[in-house]
Amino acid sequence: MAKSVGLERSGRKRNLTIQLDEAIIQAAKELAARKGTSVSGLVTQTLAEMVEAEIRYQEAMRRAFKAMDEAKGLGGGGRTWTRQEINDERLKKWDRR
Fold first, then answer.
1. φ, ψ for residue 75 (rounded to 5)?
2. Which residues contact 3 (CB under 8 A, 6 or more apart)?
3. Per-residue model confidence as pLDDT tens digits over 72-85
4. Which residues contact 6 (CB under 8 A, 6 or more apart)?
5. Contact present, 29 and 39 (Cβ < 8 Å)
6. What is residue 25's predicted lDDT score, i.e. its pLDDT?
7. Structurally, how many domains does the chain consist of?
8. Where are the alpha helices (DSSP H) in the chain?
9. Which residues contact 1 (CB under 8 A, 6 or more apart)?
10. Which residues form the domain of 55?
11. What are the Cα distances from residue 58, in Å, to 4, 44, 51?
12. At 10, is the secondary structure helix, strand, or coil?
């Protein structure tokens, strides 16, 4: 799954030390046992999913900005308005009511 979003797995593993409350550790051990894995496996899977989701989000955002930059005929004609012009236009609409 990680490869599909550009996260290469090197096969090398390193240790990571974390500190958790005893109650969390116990609950994690029970959850891992029910899922047939280890606490380390749970942590690995959860972190990998979070990282992959962030990579997908960033890529989607990059594509969206690129599409907006490349859009033609959608108001990008070079016209700019000042804040005062926008406010004046809104006031004109308000006065017509």
1. 95, 5
2. 9
3. 666 556 677 889 99
4. 55, 59
5. yes
6. 97
7. 1
8. 22-35, 39-70, 83-95
9. 48, 52
10. 2-72
11. 14, 21, 11
12. coil
